Amino acid sequence: MGNIKYCCVQFCGYKRTFLGTKKKSTSKPLYRFPNKPQLKEKWVQALINLNGQSEISKLPKEAYICSQHFEPDCLEKIGFSAVRLKPGSIPTIFPFNKTEQLDQDITMASNAISDVPLEITQYPLEEPCFSGKIRYPGDINEENVKGTSNQNLQKYVLILKKACRKKDQMIKRLQSLRNRQKKKINSLQSMLSDLRARDLISSNTSHIMQIFSNATFLQENCFPLPLRGNLTAYGQRYPWRTEGRSH
């Protein structure tokens, strides 16, 4: 059996098994509580205040917290796979906060509002209210990001990443269409050049055929359905005929 270490953050449930010196590259790093009393106390207070863990004061001899509870700028990569915790770092990300803690924060905020002087109590209606859910990138702006929790910020980042992935897919699709268009145009130009060299078509006929072929490609690949009829009418307006010539 390997040595099993657990993350002591309540409701996290992450554990890691160490088998000799082998470590999985996909596993999350676990960081032991600091030996320095002052920094250790800050870790304990973070769990108590931010995650509502009153029983955390009775820590085992070796207690750990996994990397997902630290801000990204608290971590630094060493070598190919090792991730080290920067000195003085404190855990601040707790996505499983208790409802009681949230109620306590709301009560404290309400008490703070009631202490505001009378001369500025006439302005709260002008404060933006963000009661709706943030679901799309357009819903995210400077006002509703300011002062929000780390958990909400993580959700906003995921929404933006998803939108970027969709745009990347669209860019790749358009690049693929452009490459196909270039290949078809090059093939057509090569064919028309060969026909002109054999004196099978006139240069004017070759030019019209090239315009019509390009319009057909754009109609089939690059334009939405409402525009396709207009392109077809354009192609029919300029028909061509093949002119045979004697040699």
Structural notes for this entry:
The chain is mainly alpha-helical. It folds into three domains: 3-85, no CATH class; 99-159, no CATH class; 168-237. Helices cover 47% and strands 9% of the residues. The protein has six helices and six strands; from the N terminus they run E-E-E-H-E-E-E-H-H-H-H-H. It has helices spanning 37-51, 99-114, 142-145, 150-197, 203-221, 225-237; strands spanning 3-6, 15-18, 30-32, 64-66, 75-78, 82-85. The strands form three sheets. It has a two-stranded antiparallel ribbon with strand order 1-2. Helix 4 (150-197) runs antiparallel to helix 5 (203-221) and helix 5 runs antiparallel to helix 6 (225-237). The protein is elongated. It starts with a strand and ends in a 10-residue tail after the last helix. 7% of the residues are buried.
Question: Which structural traits does this protein have?
Answer:
247 residues, mainly alpha, 3 domains, two-stranded antiparallel ribbon, 6 helices, 47% helix, disordered C terminus, zinc-finger, transcription, nucleus, THAP_Znf_sf, metal-binding
